[in-house]
Each structure stands twice: as C-alpha cells, then as structure tokens.
Design brief:
Elements: H1 2-9, H2 22-36, H3 39-42, E1 48-51, E2 62-70, E3 76-77, E4 80-81, H4 82-95, E5 99-111, H5 116-132, E6 136-145, E7 153-163, E8 181-184, H6 190-199, H7 216-225, E9 229-234, H8 239-251, E10 254-258, H9 266-275, E11 288-292, H10 294-304, E12 314-320, E13 327-330, E14 336-339
Parallel strand pairs: 5-6, 10-13
Antiparallel strand pairs: 1-2, 2-7, 3-4, 5-7, 8-11, 8-12, 9-11, 10-12, 13-14
Bound molecules: magnesium ion.
C-alpha cells in the first residue's frame, strides 16, 4: 500500500507537457532551465543568439543556434510530411530570430521495419526545402530501434545562422512599444486542422492543406521594408494566442487582437467549429507574427503581400498600455474576451 501511494504521488510526464502551453513551460522551467540555466538559454528565444568571432572586416555578427524534434503523426499529411516540417521549422526558428540560416544537422530515429521508400520521400523533401532556402544539411545521425521502441520515425534538426549587427535585438522583443502593430502573413490554423483531418480520415468538402513553409524569404522582405521590426515569432504549437500571451507576459504589455482581421480559410474554420477547436490556439507551420512600429505597419503588410506566402498578410492587433500582461480579443460579434495561456495541447504530436 505504501508503495502504491508513493507511486501515485510521483509526477509523470503528461502529453500536455509537450503542448507548448503552460505545462510545457513548467517542465522547461522546473527541469531543463533549472539545471541548464545560463544567460543565453534564459532568453528563451526561438534561437540562442551567441557571440561570434568578428570577421576580418570587423563585423560583429552573432551566431544563431536552434534545435527541434519532430514526432508528427501521421508522417505524411496534405501539404507536407515530417521531413519538410523538420527543415521548415528549424529554418523558421532561425529566421524569426533575425538570422540568416546557413547550416542544418538532422538526426533520424527509425523504427525497424520502416519502408526505405517512405524514408526516401521524406529525405527528398528535406533536401528540396533546404536547397530552396540556400541552406546545406551538413551533418547527421541515424539510429534504428526495434519494433515498438518508437512510432515509425522521429527527426531532430538543429540549425545555425548568422545575425547581422542591425538585427541583433530582434529575438529579445525588448524594443516592443505601446502602439506597435501585430501582423500575420496569412490564414491561421491550417496545419493543425490538416493533421486532424488526415488523422480522423474526415471526409471534408475539400482537403485542408498544412501551411508548412520556409518563411525565410518572406521575413527577409519584411525586414527590408522596415527598420523598426521589434519582434517576430512563428506561431507553431499553441497558435497565435500563445505567441500573443507570451509577448504580453514577458514585456508586461497589453495586446488587443481583432478577430475580424485575422485571416482564416473557410474549410479550416468549419473543421475547427465541428471539432470544437479555438483556431487561435491551433498550430501553424508557415505563419509568422511580426511586431512593428505603427508607422511602418502598412508598408510591411504591402511588401509581404507581394510574396506568395504573404498574399493575405494583415494587421491583426496592437500593443497597448491597457491591461498589462493580458491579451484581449475583440470578437467578430462586437464583444471582448480575455485570451489566456492554455495549460495543455489541443492536439498532441502535431509537429
Ligand atoms: Mg518557434
């Protein structure tokens, strides 16, 4: 009895610890950050920004370094596969940190019995995505585990890039000011709903495609359009709501989001309603939230709209001095509601 009671009291990892919500953060804070703590890690940005030896020209660039693991299920989904996701996700974490991505590593954990032809499709799409971004996959590792020891295939990618001196502060978000605009490059919640549709073999009007994409060229356009981009984050697990909540909390600023301004595809909206998901929290894999000075917001939106990944770019909210630390949504029907951090995932193994 004593043993049972003790076991019950022992905390175990829950699926929600991998969600990107408050439980994820608790795990990071109480286990990883507590033991690994250092100034670089404590920034908790999408990439660690590290001092880099000055070049002969004396430019004080910095190194951006990031890593991510991919466990998405199913491995193949409309609009992509685990390999494309693994490359896009890591390139995007570098790009939103103001870095120009240079090199990637990839590690594969493969279950015995996995089809080599499937592996090849996945690897081919990784190569295509990396080549398109002008990035080389320069090192890797393969482990095969016995049947049942992992679910088909897991991939880890790490990436490094260079941050130009003028972009050194973007990853911190410290320059965010009241009045700044929040921009998104297009419709939200497609990735999460594409996975859900595929997983449940839902026979929907027309298939929802994941937005999985490398955002580097689009982010480059935005950065060239304005010198006052304060912060960027890719709205992956936890969606746009989680990005907004993190920004509000970290900067002790208020955020107002305008629901009517947030682009969404009708199919995705329909599936969210059908399955009871709030699209604001659903994962994206090709969406960036950009925070920019009010004077430059329209210019950035106009510039982004010239690129295929930004045709529906829109201003979706504003930084405010009211309700510091809180995100408030002005709803389409004219009401307001608080947008909170959620504890767990709406969907496990979404990326
Ligand atoms: Mg990210």
């Amino acid at each position: 009895m004593g043993i049972t009671t003790k076991k019950m009291a022992e905390k175990t990892i829950l699926l929600d610890h991998g969600s990107g919500g408050t439980l994820s953060r608790e795990l990071v804070d109480q286990v990883f950050a507590r033991h690994f703590a250092n100034d670089r890690l404590n920034e908790m940005s999408d990439s660690a920004i590290l001092p880099f030896p000055a070049t002969e020209k004396g430019a004080a660039s910095q190194l951006a370094f990031t890593t991510d693991s991919y466990v998405v299920q199913p491995l193949f989904f409309p609009g992509g596969n685990i390999g494309k996701l693994a490359v896009c996700g890591t390139l995007n974490d570098l790009a939103v940190s103001g870095a120009t991505p240079l090199y990637l590593s990839c590690g594969f954990i493969i279950e015995e019995g996995f089809l080599i032809s499937d592996l090849e499709i996945i690897v081919q799409s990784m190569a295509e995505e990396a080549n398109a971004a002008g990035v080389a996959i320069v090192t890797g590792d393969t482990k095969v585990v016995e049947r049942g020891a992992c679910d088909q295939l897991f991939i880890n990618t790490a990436g490094v890039g260079i941050v130009a001196p003028a972009r050194a502060g973007i990853h911190t978000g410290r320059e965010i000011q009241p009045g700044d605009a929040l921009i998104i490059n297009g419709p939200i919640a497609d990735h999460g709903m594409a996975i859900m549709g595929k997983r449940n073999a839902l026979d929907f009007q027309s298939e929802i495609h994941s937005d999985c994409a490398t955002l580097t060229p689009l982010i480059d356009i935005a950065l060239r359009a304005s010198d006052t981009i304060r912060f960027m984050r890719d709205a992956t697990r936890g969606g746009v709501a989680t990005v907004a909540c993190e920004v509000a909390e970290k900067g002790k600023l208020g955020i107002v989001l305008d629901e009517a301004a947030i682009p969404m595809n009708e199919n995705t909206r329909g599936l969210c309603e059908l399955l009871g998901f709030d699209p604001l929290y659903v994962a994206n894999e090709g969406k960036v939230v950009i925070i920019v000075s009010p004077d430059d917001a329209d210019r950035v939106v106009t510039a982004m709209r010239q690129h295929p990944l930004g045709t529906q770019a829109a201003i979706i909210g504003e930084i405010t001095t009211a309700h510091p630390g809180k995100v408030v949504l002005h709803t389409e029907v004219g009401g307001t509601r608080i947008v909170d951090m959620i504890a767990g995932a709406q969907l496990p193994r979404i990326c």
